[in-house]
Amino acid sequence: MQIVYKNATLISGTGDSPVPNSILVVEDDKILFSGSAENWSQTQDPEESKAVDLKGKWIIPGLIDCHIHMDLFGFGDTFQENLVEDKLRTLRSARLMSDTLRAGFTTVRNVGTVNYIDFAVKEGIEAGYFTGPRIETAGKIISMTCSGTEYFDGMYSIADGVDECRKAAREQLKQGADCLKLMATGAVMNPGGVPGAAQLNEDEIRAVVEEGLKLGKHTAAHAHGAQGIINAVNAGVRTIEHGTMADDQAIEAMAEAGVFLVPTMSLHDVFMENADSVPGFMIEKSQDMQKTYIEIVKKAIKAGIRIAMGTDAGTNYNFHGTNASEIVYLVENKIMTPLEAISAATLVAAEAIGTAHTAGSLEKGKLADFLILDKDPISDIRVLTKNIEQVYKGGQLVS
Length: 399
Ligand SMILES: [Zn+2]
Fold this sequence. Notes:
Bound molecules: zinc ion
CATH topology of the largest domain: TIM Barrel
Structural class: alpha/beta
């Protein structure tokens, strides 16, 4: 049965202008046609297809968040997460992924979770036990021996030297990782982390990247400081996460290599708003970064670096299901136009995480992951946080 969604204004995700009086034809889980009604000729007997009139509504692709941690709940102090046992954490993650899907995110990349519970949640969604987005997941984060990893007990695979890094990558792949994640610099989120300091060396990172590529899987590098970004780029990673302290040289390296930058910007405001219960060491580091972050991301865009949307959802007060607030941040801080920000959270995001052949835009042959909005997101981007009327994943209405 074909379903013909008629008369909505359609944003394809490709960056093209919105199409008024559009037609979106869905058969089973795929898109058969997407575009202007003028370019459509009905191929099937209208008796055998169902028409849905969406006059006055907007259709956009399902959103994609390239950086989440499904098993973190958003506690004021993430150290408390260590008190939640894995069984409960797994169930909680399932619930949070359902919230994420209902918020319009039909795909997420999960970049670090304790004790491989991400694979169980992903499997549960694919088996139809509960609803959730399509998940690309990394298993544990590969990190060198350093202070602070105990803050997220069970989330890191500790590896020192090329051989151990290779083995850690292989272990994640054995467990079922869709991509790999490593620490190229220190972190904001633990007390000992020095975000500006490089961590894994270039040859260690390269070993991880190579192991992933053997199976066609990319590597994401957590990197704040410039040297760590450069090490990761030289070693062949596909995405730089955060990039908060990128200097001109690091930006040039990213642009030249064609890597994607996944800035996670709005969480810094969230930390500040909750400064009374977020640990002081995080507030201090976050405050420093915030001063220059917007300018750095603008510079990166100017240099031609593709920006894919990510939230770091699950971190302190950065709740799953509120992911679209990052898109709002990009627009309200004049980093991107609304159309650009929607692309960063759809097609560019899909390209970054390697799912653009099936997701990220409303184009013929792709999966029918789309949202129906009851207001225009171009004139008010906050529509994405509150006016999503329906979410479809693979042509199915998410109830
Ligand atoms: Zn993260």
